[in-house]
Amino acid sequence: MKIKFSKRDENEESNSVTGYKSDKEIIRIAKEALSEIIDPELGIDIISLGLVYDIYLESTKVESQKLSETTELETLVVDMTLTTPGCPVSESLPSQARDYLSEILGPQINVKMNIVWDPPWTPEKMDFTIARAMGLL
Amino acid sequence: MNPSGNFNLSESVSVNPIGGTATSRTPPPHVPLMFLFSSIIFFGVGGIVTFFYASFLIHDPTDDKSVADVHLYLLGFITMGILGALHQFSPVITLEKLYSIKLAYFTYGLYIIGIILLPLGLILGSEALTAFGGASLGTSIVTVIVNLSRPLLKGKKSVSRLGLRISITYLLITACFGVTFASTHNSFSPPTHLVLAHASFGLIGWAGISYIAVSERLWPMFLLSHVNQAKYGKLAIYFVAIGELILAVGLIISNELIAVAGGLVIGLGILSHLASLLNYIKHRHRKLELLHGYIFTSVICLITSAVMGILAVTLNISWSYKEKLSLLTVVFLFGWLATALIGHLHKIIPFIIWGVLRKHGVTKLKNKKPVMFSNLYLANIAKLSLVFVISSFVCFAIGILQGSVDIVKVAGIFIFASALTGFANLSITPIVLFLRNRGSKTTHGFDVSNRLPNVTSVEKI
Ligand code: HEM
Fold it and tell me: pLDDT, tens digit, for every residue of B49-79?
């Protein structure tokens, strides 16, 4: 479980856009939420499987044509991979994670899932204590 | 802007230069499912036809009734199953969508018409039905090639794509022979060596290479086995593809030496395929489970087929024994593909249905645990289906060697039982789960992708 956090993670100050206490709190909640997303083939959550490479926040300016105004918005970015490129759940696992994060974090935070193939996932990235307990060698 | 006054972007706004975001490339789930479930039905129908025409299969494998049964198995079951898997996987493997979803319905419709009319025409002795069925199947195969052309021509390079490009070419050649045979069936009986060329193109070039290609993608996933290079898989594909070409040329020009040379090269391909499987098993991170039971049985069938083929060519025995050994070679080649396909259907169908159930809010079991693929069928029934498949091929072998019609009839019953239990298990279990959990839309199930406001530009700060 080597999740790398971006600099924004160090920001302990209250975030005026999201209303959360700090960026760190948002990332902690996100990580907890992601550990509830289970790979339906292996029965292990995606954090223990080592599929999540990075979680960080990004600020984005959005211009709305209709309201002719610019608003700042916070985006939680999750870099995740899959056990195999072309894996059958490749379409559903990230969108399941995104939907759940959006729901947990609320409408103030936009969620973006990046599917990353570099570095490729290897079984060594798994949390072996959990993997063994779940019957994986 | 959403009701709470905040902007909310869907994933489609963001672009990642490395991997890209997840967008749906696969066709709607019912597209592969209609092919896959239909293939199991035709497996069962094949079993029924085996039961009624067992004596033809044993005493005259070239009789029209035998040909009808052979095509229910090889076109109705194996080819349809592979086509279902390709509609699902080729877009995922190559990162390119199918050409058109409507075309997939068209392919399916024509295919069903063809696979009903061709055997019916052969059994009833109707040249018109046989010709129409053959033409319908041939057209359907052309449409599927058009539909897969985008993923297979433009898509991401891989061993699987290479194998599928070759196998689909062999399918086209098989169909050209088949449609020609079917269109002139009652008036012209094609020479045996051409029928054998057609059979080898279909069984080895099309079905065999397709399975090798797809398994190179599925095994790492199902065995959780990440070997760095798929070198054995690549070798297997090249050897089988080249060997099949040599074998077919030998058959077409009736040159036994060339045909045997082709067979030897195919043998090297089979060895590479087995080496690839061993390599994946050696590096696996999962305990052996049901699928592996199916895979090992299929490997035993493949090896038996190869041994029977070698014995048929090398032994100095009577013509009738040679004929029996040749028949067993084809039956066990079919056993290899059939067992592997039924086993993989127990993986492929649940994960497609899993997505459908999620969309309908069925994400948790009664005990509040998340729904897994393995919850979508009963493991014991799946084991029973495997026992039925194994029993059917044992009966085929004994029946053919002893010339016993009754034992081959039992083989037909076992095939029917395997198809019935497989179909019921893979369909009823998810339906029960759906009915039990209907309406209990859980939080994981909802979709937030439609919350995009009228955004014109996005700029990172
Ligand atoms: C458009 C598709 C196809 C059509 C219309 C077709 C039609 C036929 C016909 C009419 C025959 C009988 C030839 C004769 O003896 O008069 C035949 C034989 C045969 N075909 Fe096909 N075929 C098709 C595809 C396939 C495929 C895909 C396979 C294998 C995967 C296959 C395997 C065989 C075999 C093994 C025989 C020999 C059967 C026996 O002698 O009992 N065919 N085919």
Answer: 999 999 999 988 889 999 999 999 999 999 9
Q: Which residues pair with A113 in a beta bridge?
A: A78
Whether residue A42 lies inside any domain: the answer is yes
CA B324 to chain centre: 27
Segments forming the whole domain that contains residue A101: 23-133
pLDDT of residue A20: 62
Is the CB of A64 less than 8 angstroms away from the CB of B22? no
State if residue B67 touches ligand 1 by the CB under 6 angstroms criterion: yes
Range of B46's domain? 18-156
Query: How many domains would you assign to chain B?
Result: 1
CB B202 near ligand 1, within 6 Å: yes
Which residues in chain B have Cβ-Cβ distances shorter than 8 Å to A62? 7, 9, 453, 455, 457-458
If one compares B341 and A91, the residue with the highest pLDDT of the two is B341
Is the ipTM higher than 0.85? The answer is: no
User: Is A60 among the domain residues?
Assistant: yes
Tell me which residue has its CA closest to atom 25 in ligand 1: B202
Residues in B touching A108 (Cβ below 8 Å): 4, 6
The CA angle A82-B155-A80, to the nearest 5 degrees, is 15
For B73-89, give the DSSP string. IIIIIIIHHHHHHHHHH
C-beta neighbour count of B178 within 10 angstroms: 22
Structurally, how many domains does chain A consist of?
Answer: 1
Q: Does B39 reside within a domain?
A: yes
- Residue in chain A closest to B219 (alpha carbons) equals A84
